[in-house]
Design brief:
By secondary structure, this protein is of the alpha/beta class. It folds into 2 domains: about 1-155, D-tyrosyl-tRNA(Tyr) deacylase (D-tyrosyl-trna(Tyr) Deacylase, Chain: A, 3-Layer(bba) Sandwich); about 160-195. It is built from 5 helices and 8 strands. Strands 1, 2, 3, 6, 7 and 8 form a 6-stranded mixed beta sheet that branches. Strands 4-5 form a two-stranded antiparallel sheet. A hairpin with a 2-residue loop joins strand 1 and strand 2 (about 20-25). The longest helix has 19 residues, at about 175-195.
Length: about 200
């Protein structure tokens, strides 16, 4: 499950020039449902959205949640958060959940959020126009596969594992063999350009 969350002064969504949802102070959350998502992702993401401390306290520090400030959330479905542009320029969306499953989980997220704060929505599978007035700006992406891999029984790699992997990658790129290969390729390309 993926979400892109923006802190807003106001936001609204229309479908065919008819407003389907609007909020004042709060969060605009674009929500994408991926293959394999289920109730654990719904629970994790709704808890995060409700507890996310990105509103200022009296000292001017980001220390309050949307619940604390009496804000609202506008949730807009957006399967394009699962766009894959690794090959070519036209995105593919094969990792997005099928529409019937995605809509059910989208409604579950909305329902859980409504238990704590006012929630407005767009219309699932509609061509929507979204307008927002952000401030900060503050925009935060969430991806349960990366941020909460334990939901699927996968251990999150430690910082040292990530650093070790990065060091091995850099070492492989800068090894004498890799550098000779790059020089050979570059020379071959230069000769092609000359011809």
């Amino acid at each position: 499950m993926r979400a892109v969350v923006q802190r807003v002064a106001s936001a609204r969504v229309t479908v065919d020039s008819v407003e389907t949802g609007a909020i004042g102070h709060g969060l605009l959350a674009y929500l994408g449902i991926g293959e394999g998502d289920g109730e654990p992702e719904v629970e994790w993401l709704t808890r995060k959205l409700l507890a996310l401390r990105i509103f200022e306290d009296d000292a001017g520090k980001m220390n309050r949640s949307v619940v604390d400030v009496g804000g609202a959330i506008l949730v807009v479905s957006q399967f394009t958060l699962y766009a894959d542009v690794a090959r070519g320029n036209r995105p593919s969306f094969g990792r997005a959940a099928p529409p019937d499953i995605a809509e059910s989980l989208y409604e579950r997220v909305v329902g859980r959020l409504r238990e704590r704060v006012p929630v407005a929505t767009g219309r699932f599978r509609a061509d929507m126009r979204v307008e927002s007035v952000g401030y900060g700006p503050i925009t935060i992406p969430f991806d349960t596969a990366l941020d909460a891999p334990a939901l699927r029984g996968v251990a999150r790699p430690s910082r040292s594992h990530i650093d070790d992997a990065a060091a091995r990658f850099v070492a492989a790129l800068t090894s004498p063999d890799a550098l000779r290969s790059a020089e050979t390729t570059s020379t071959a390309l230069d000769h092609e350009d000359d011809g």
